[in-house]
Request: fold
Amino acid sequence: MMATDNSKTVKNDEPDDGSYTQSNSLYNVIGRNSHYVALLTAWVATCGSLFFSEILGWAPCLLCWYQRIFMYPLSLVLAVGILRRDKGLHKYALALSIPGACISLFHYLDQKTDLVKALVPCTVGVPCSADYLNAFGGVVTIPFLALIAFLIITFCMVAARLGNDADIEEDEPSIDAAKQPGRIAIALPVFVIIAAVVLAYFIAGSSYRYGGIGSSGSTTTYSSNPLPTPDSTAAARGKVLYESTCAACHGIKGEGTPSGLALTTSQQVLTGTNESLVKFVRMGRAANDPHNVTGMAMPANGGRSDSSDQDIVAVIVYMRQLAKNAGSGPSS
Ligand code: HEC
Reply:
């Protein structure tokens, strides 16, 4: 066909141009598979967040909950949307993934900068700025992972939309119908993806609990009797755990903050035994506990139920050091 008179239609109906049909079907491939990539991402993020909270015992802060509110529905909305071949799926998904990405970004900024400090809603429970996971030089934290997941889903939905556009504009129904996979071919990957991620979650969960991947080396036992004696590296290890977990409430030097007591003047820290302190940190103290002096809760394990006795003893050594330094030096 030599349509020289109308350059606009040439682009649309030139079937013999190989490169054009190729890129068109590439669009289709991207469009179709991006749904599955988004689905996989949502399920990995959902099960991953459950792994952190339910298996590792890391208590989610308020901002984590807000991100969960946007991520968890995505895993189901995407599955149903794919099964129903809903052309409008991207609208529902983007309505969840974009606000989710904004919250993750906000949370990440709170962890890494002081830009948004005044707006942070975490006033009770685990502080939003606490980094449980602080991998790869402190770059990769949980909200960082969530942000990546939300962005992947957003990107996939935009790609799917573009892919769908190519689908609709294609005006050769016979080829299109031939390329259109059947119902089962569309549905099967959905179930395979969900089953695989859920299975991985349970395998990882049970091997962590019973076999101990991640519960590294010597620190596998909880509440062993007698308590491990602190070694020469305890203070250094305690410092790391203290600063990532306890400092948000108790202050970086143990000086206290509006959400936690000063430890430098604490009689418990200065005179208590290791046993009594481990017990206290393990249990935490509810806000309505009769012994509570501040009216605020101390979360069990400071919010880190993955810590071993050895970790907690190390933190105690470090807390004592802070209290001693504060006592001897000029008081701040
Ligand atoms: C979410 C904030 C928060 C975090 C995180 C936290 N604490 Fe606390 N902690 C508190 C509050 C609030 C109290 C005071 C409870 C009360 O009023 O009795 C407290 C009390 C304590 C006390 C008792 C002090 C005293 O004199 O009675 C110790 C010891 C202590 N925390 C250690 C830790 C350690 C160790 C960690 C980290 C592993 C930690 N806390 C993490 C909020 C926190």
About this structure: Residues 1-20, 168-178, 212-224 have pLDDT under 50 and may be disordered. The radius of gyration is 27 Å.
